[in-house]
Amino acid sequence: MSAIPSNLVLAEKSVPRYTSYPTAPHFSANVGTETYEAWLAALPVTTRLSLYLHVPYCRELCSYCGCHTKATRKAEPLDGYAEILAREIALVAEKTPARTVTHAHWGGGTPSMLGGQRLLGLTDALRSHFAFAPHAEFSIELDPRYVDGELVDALAAGGITRVSLGVQDFNPHVQKAIGRVQPLETVARAVDLLRRRGFAAINLDLMYGLPHQREEDVIRTAELAASLKPSRLALFGYAHAPWFAKRQSLIESSALPGAAERLKQANVARKTLVDLGFVAIGLDHFALPGDRLAIYAGQGRLRRNFQGYTTDQAEALLPFGASSIGRLPQGYVQNAADVGSWRRAIESGRFATIKGAAFSRDDLARAAVIERLMCDFSVDYGAIAEEILGDDAAFDAAQPDLSQLIREGVATQEGRRVTITEAGRPFMRLVASAFDAYLPTRAARHSVAV
pTM value? Predict the structure, then answer.
């Protein structure tokens, strides 16, 4: 690999992950239930849909986690949540003529906490209200510690086509530090159960930048993860944000690797996985060469949304469950984060939308530039500005921010085409941030760039 930029100040800058634009801190209450209902009604019947269903429950909470979730071991909260989720599915279907589903994803939390019976019931509800395309992808996130034969049978019966297992790290001292102890044997057993039941599309999620994690720990985790032969891997940088996720305050900041070490960890993990035969995709994903994610990346068709990098080409993403976010052609919508508010809204027969963002033409153009940078490492921002705004010079104001990154070796520029260098790929969020019109206008705390 080529040398990395020497200025580690870049790695410590705070920037969004750009799974959306505008990003979530810039959503406002100007978009509410009436707006969402109008946007749903305006969707053409031919609209391809993606569905996201959020389950904010886990058996226990991991100290590194920043998701909207809470711990429970009781059946009652899960029964109640599943009941309201079914009502929300019916409510959304009633308000829109769009029916064709090409992607659906269960996220959390730990969505498999619902158990096989509840998951099957909700899957039946989805299929009774929407029409799943013949080759629709239907995925779910799983905690490998709680994968058993009964759950796997239910997932197969429900038509799940892809599963994602949260691994994070395979080293005992790191697992102890993050409150998630799961030996390699536990994950391998889950993978074996899934494969025996016919699941070929298996993802593993890994992390770097964790407390007490060293370079050799990251290499070992990458090698062991690859030995399980997943079709995809994701490698996320731990985002320490105790002001947002209070449970992260259990992690001592002094135990976290610094900017230089995080950068080394990101690069060495990337090199390890590439050397083991995986294709590096975007900022933090890896896939086998024959996987559709790798194929779409090679064709310039890769997309990026709240689930990360995806092959999802749907025109609208509809959210279900507390805190879930959706994207329609007109803008973003987000449900109430707390389960009580979400439940009361659905019980009263209205959506639980509490905020969002209506797109301007400038938003759409900047979103397109940022997405192509994050997916393709290169973009002709002048061509996009000309196509959407009728002005190829509309984003020339980004030049000062780009100039610094070009001097640091993070990117190159020819005319209005910006290309992220091989060494600059860990810093791609900084390049994207040069086109973010909202970032300078409102203070928002984000994770570090690498």
Answer: 0.93
